[in-house]
Write a structure and sequence with these properties.
By secondary structure, this protein is an alpha/beta fold. The chain contains 13 helices and 12 strands. Strands 7-6-8-9-10-11-12 form a 7-stranded mixed beta sheet, sandwiched between helices. A 5-stranded parallel beta sheet has the order 2-1-3-4-5, with helices on both faces. The chain starts with 7 loop residues before the first helix and ends in a 16-residue tail after the last strand.
Length: 422
């Protein structure tokens, strides 16, 4: 039996045209390097529905960035998510942030609720891990970091936010209230503010009241009613609201509290012109729409919202609907989606991807106009690390669907106010 030695020349001839030699598989190409992002959101617990929307939005954006060639200025490096779950427990923000950093996360993204986001901030600053906040509104989250840097207590700000702050929510909500009442040619006089008494709710309520005081509109906030979050029953709070004889109830809710508040308002037959939220989740998600049904119809709320006049937003929204089982591309999915593209833009411009200070410097110089949400201009971070062009849109539940109705440039339908009587 004659044996033949496989030379390099005969190997190349044998494999011409891409055929492999039996027993000699072609060498695998080196796997591309990835830039790891720790994406932490509430995947379980009371905030699971918006948290899951955030994650899917981020995953879709990572897929889109990678499919388009990754971070081109850095040799096409791909993005990779290391995901985390706060379980809707604020203290878990720090625990999960530390875990993903230990697993190699070079940036942080998250985390929806202000409590867990605040906990993540300490990890970002201590471990020098740049952190882009996709959703969380409490003003002190970034303001405290900016102050510590300004006072020389810390050298670099690693935390930036692409989401409206509680104070900006308040200013826009008061503005939209005034404009909508004028456009509807009605003059509500008595507004009852109700809110979930956690860090988010407290900050939102303060922002709304401060903006009301500054604007001095023709309507008065006649009662301010907090509730413990999550509540077990809201009968007492709604009874207080009813006793104040409101023309408008302005609730700042969480998803779980909305499921109790809206039915209780209907049960106690609180007569108002309408329910108009200054900003908060729980009034537009698929789960709330399915459970609350007519109790949510005609409810207005001021929230950050996708710009569906942008064809790209519509395309991404359709993909999200397919991948989520029919849910709307909304505040949560939209802001997480945009955040990943902002990170990609930051990495394209950063002098180095291994130096956190270089990434932080690139974050500070962001000027990104490719977002899918309704902004007041390009994404640009101010001296506090906030995007002042992140603004809410007034949406309304019409035909059991959330629809942008104000301001005019964002509106897809005309709002209905006052709410038609049954």
């Amino acid at each position: 039996m004659t044996t033949h030695r496989l030379t390099r020349r005969t190997f190349l001839k044998t494999t011409a045209g891409g055929a492999a030699v039996v027993g000699f598989p072609l060498p695998l190409r080196a796997q591309p390097k990835t830039f790891k992002i720790g994406a932490i959101h509430p995947m379980t617990g009371a905030l699971a529905e918006p948290g899951q929307a955030c994650r899917l939005g981020a995953q879709m954006a990572v897929g889109a960035v990678n499919a388009a060639g990754g971070i081109k200025a850095k040799g096409g490096i791909k993005l990779e998510l290391i995901v985390g779950d706060t379980q809707t427990k604020p203290e878990n923000g720090r625990v999960e942030a530390e875990r993903v950093v230990n697993q190699g996360a070079q940036m942080l993204l998250g985390s929806f609720d202000s409590g867990s986001t605040s906990a993540m901030v300490s990890v970002a600053q201590q471990k020098r891990v740049p952190f882009l906040i996709d959703i969380a509104a409490a003003d002190p989250i970034t303001a405290n970091v900016a102050k510590s840097v300004r006072d020389g207590e810390q050298k670099v700000q690693y935390v930036y936010r692409n989401f409206p702050t509680g104070s900006s929510f308040g200013r826009k909500a008061v503005q939209y209230f005034i404009e909508i009442f004028k456009e509807a040619n009605v003059s509500p006089k008595r507004v009852v503010l109700m809110y979930c008494n956690d860090l988010f709710g407290q900050n939102q309520a303060r922002g709304f009241q401060a903006a009301h005081k500054a604007a001095n509109p023709s309507w008065e906030i006649v009662e301010v009613i907090p509730w413990p979050e999550p509540p077990s029953d809201l009968a007492t709070e709604v009874s207080r609201a009813k006793a104040a004889k409101p023309d408008v109830i302005a609730p700042i809710t969480r998803p779980a509290s909305a499921l109790l508040l809206l039915p209780e308002i209907a049960k106690q037959r609180v007569e108002t012109m309408g329910i108009v939220g200054p900003g908060g989740p729980g009034l537009y998600e698929a789960g709330q729409l399915a459970q609350l049904k007519q109790d949510l119809e005609y409810v207005l709320t001021s929230v950050p919202w996708p710009n569906f006049k942008n064809p790209k937003t519509t395309t991404v929204g359709e993909e999200f609907r397919r991948r989520s089982g029919g849910k709307t591309f909304d505040t949560n999915s939209g802001y997480s989606y945009d955040a990943v593209f902002v990170i990609a833009d930051i990495l394209e411009r950063a002098a180095s991807l291994v130096d956190p200070d270089a990434i932080a410097d690139s974050m500070k110089k962001t000027n990104y106009a490719g977002g899918l949400m309704q902004y007041g201009g390009p994404i640009v971070f101010n001296e506090l690390g906030d995007n002042a062009n992140a603004i809410p849109t007034m949406i309304q539940i019409l035909g059991q669907k959330p629809v942008a109705v104000w301001p005019r440039e964002a509106a897809l339908q005309k709002f209905v106010f006052p709410r038609p009587k049954a």
